[in-house]
Amino acid sequence: DCDVCGQSFSEKKQFNAHIRVHTGKKPIICDTCGQMFSRRSSLKAHMRIHAGHRPFVCDICGRSFGQKTNLKTHMMIHTGSKSFCCDFCGQKFYRKSHLSTHTRIHTGHNRYPCDVCGQSFSQRSSVNRHMKIHTGEKPFGCDVCGQTFSRNAILHTHMRIHSGYKPFGCDICGQWFSQKRSLTIHTRLHAGHKPYSCDACGKGFSDRTNLKIHMRVHSIEKPYCCDVCGHRFHQVTSLSRHMIVHTELKSFGCDVDMATQNAENTLAVNAKATLKEEGSQN
């Protein structure tokens, strides 16, 4: 019998596979994408995604899935059913696994701390992976672009950028992603969930990276520089828009110096207009 949940098994092999549910151990790895599993049967079901085999079809919208459990989860979108509820805060989830992950926030069930920074983890293997951040060890290299990674699983995920493979699909709109993290961030857009907020102005973001980019607006940091006129910008998108000024002027036969002067004049006019507008409001 399992000491944790009391479930009984007739074979030791079944018990060993079951106990991984409680320990979180996932020794079985998908060679295609690097995703890890506790059971070989889970890997077998997962491989249908890569093979394009989707035998389970939604009767309502026609969307198909490689696993029956994914179809059941998808059906909750049509029914609005979130049957797994957190006993601490009342938040509801479609999947039990999502509830289990969420519950750790309340219980603080992270028994394995990092000796360097103090961050704690629920699994010893997670600490070992985390330690490579401090050591800088990146033994896994990409044969295409040369980028190196601390984990083989991350390299597998990275390779999808070169292959164009996108195994993670949004159940709501059908958009596909090469990384599970990208799907998670995308899903927040549908839910309107923006967990990362700016301390300066309160603006919310669904992704930590977008928050970091936004914070440059409040700071003096302008890392993106125009090679033509030297003007600097907070974001690369702003630099790209600015470069159109130089491109358009050069297409009409202006030399670089003239393009630079016109760009600077444009910026000066915009600055004066802004000051005039601010003065009229005071």
From TrEMBL:
**Family matches, as SMART domains:** ZnF_C2H2
Query: Mind telling me what this protein is named?
Result: C2H2-type domain-containing protein
**Top-rank taxon:** Eukaryota
What PANTHER family does UniProt report for this protein, alphabetically? AGAP004733-PA, LOW QUALITY PROTEIN: ZINC FINGER PROTEIN 721-RELATED
Tell me yes or no: is Cytoplasm among this UniProt entry's keywords.
no
The molecular function GO annotations come to:
DNA-binding transcription factor activity, RNA polymerase II-specific; RNA polymerase II cis-regulatory region sequence-specific DNA binding; zinc ion binding
What task does this protein carry out? May be involved in transcriptional regulation.
Q: Which SUPFAM superfamilies match?
A: beta-beta-alpha zinc fingers (SSF57667)
Q: Where in the cell is it found?
A: Nucleus
Q: Which residues form the C2H2-type domain?
A: 1-27, 28-55, 56-83, 84-111, 112-139, 140-167, 168-195, 196-223, 224-251
What cellular component GO annotations does this protein have? nucleus
UniProt keyword list: DNA-binding, Metal-binding, Nucleus, Repeat, Transcription, Transcription regulation, Zinc, Zinc-finger
Alphabetized Pfam families for the sequence: zf-C2H2, zf-C2H2_6
Under InterPro entries, the record lists: Znf_C2H2_sf, Znf_C2H2_type, ZnFinger_BTB_dom_contain
